[in-house]
Amino acid sequence: MVSRYSIVIIVLLCVGCSVNPVTGERDFVLMSEQEELALGRQHSQQVMKAYRRYDDPELQQYVQSVGDRVARVSHRQNLIYRFTLLDSTQVNAFALPGGYIYITRGLLVYLNSEAELAAVLGHELGHVTARHSVRQHSLATTTNIIGSLIAAASGVQGAGQLTNMLGTGIVRGYGREHELEADGLGVQYLINAGYRASAMRQVISTLKNQELFDKKLAIEQGREPRAYHGVFSTHPDNDTRLQQVLSGAGASSVVSGTTGQDTTFLKKIESLTFGDSEKDGIIRGRHFYHPEMNFKLTFPSQWLILNKPNAIAASTPNNDALMQLTLEDLNKKITPKEFLRIRLGITKTLSEKPFSVGQLAGYQAIVNGKTPYGQGKVRIAVVFDGLRAFVFFATTKRADRFVEVDKQVLTSIKSFSRLNAKDRKVAKELKVVLVKVGQHNKSIKLLAKNSPITHHVEDQLRLLNDLFPNREPKLGDLIKIVR
């Protein structure tokens, strides 16, 4: 006998079908185009709360113009597409429903031709034209409904969560197919827009090289390697993607037609910021400088520093100790001690006392608390600076190392100070500069000699110029360095 739950599922599948703009076949979706556009508008506001537009109107317009050229030959030419360059070091590009497409300067800086930029934007266009996010949203919504029905019928409260997890797995699995489809669509759009289709292959190779380099760093730093589009990546393994693209749409075009340097493109991205921006703070060796907030901080020797959007974090090379600095607004006239009690909710401490950093008042304490390593001792310090509170946390994996590490952490906290004229000279953004390869700079080793890049200089210069892992530039070529 067919249950009422089966009938509901059948009804959902029947009413949730619409014609896919790309394939012309019926797809399972529970969202109209108007709802899709509204979802895109909503999510675009969230994106711009998390990111900034890169402050270069001319370069923004260039990215938009390349995107427009590709969009004009896409399957959904009725949409208005917005292509935005984000001020982020992340190597990333992504699309929202309804035509909102983003690329970070962290990815743009590694591209070497307009065709490669068009390939990135064409791939993301493929997600929009094929309504991938809408299809995933519809599948997830249906899975939640079915999960609730199963939970209600079975009385098992976890059934909804279990089915939702299964749904997420299915969505991510379909995501793999979506990525391959987006690659194929991107190749079609490249060809139709007059770009060489081999640029898609080159972009995928660029992403693969980024992953290989990050794996090398991850081993050195004792962490998990990052992946393009996140740890739980919807992008297939790059080798697989490469083979799929080569055997997909426009395959003969993909593997042929390599050209010389795109000097026009290279000149467009000259002066692009490389690495940290002054708005977010600059890392130079052990030192962190924030020109806009007018402070600097020196971390313990050999510690690895990570500049996050909402915090500055540092850890030992083997990741057995860490510290973090966050910034909080002050809303009431309270003391650092009261901040510890009221804002941080700390009432029990192992030790506590006031301290000062230069002319700035602070308060420090050691508490027992939850840490990334489990339960353990935590150093907490608060420093007031005008209308802001700088909040420091530090802990260790092993209890027997806490005293030793705590001394280093306190030294670091007390290094907090205003920037002087010399600091401001050091705390400048690195910018892309083009140089012509000649006898005096004919190798990456020679180019790396005076580079301000602080680590793996040769690797990073090779990544910038599509020479990774061990190729050398050609005499007469324009090559990207940073200054």
TrEMBL record:
It holds the Pfam family Peptidase_M48. GO terms for molecular function: metal ion binding; metalloendopeptidase activity. Keywords: Hydrolase, Metal-binding, Metalloprotease, Protease, Zinc. It comes from the Bacteria. GO terms for biological process: proteolysis involved in protein catabolic process. GO terms for cellular component: membrane. The keyword Kinase does not apply. Its cofactor is Zn(2+). The keyword Magnesium does not apply. Residues 58-245 form the Peptidase M48 domain. PANTHER family: M48 FAMILY METALLOPEPTIDASE, METALLOENDOPEPTIDASE OMA1. This is Peptidase M48.
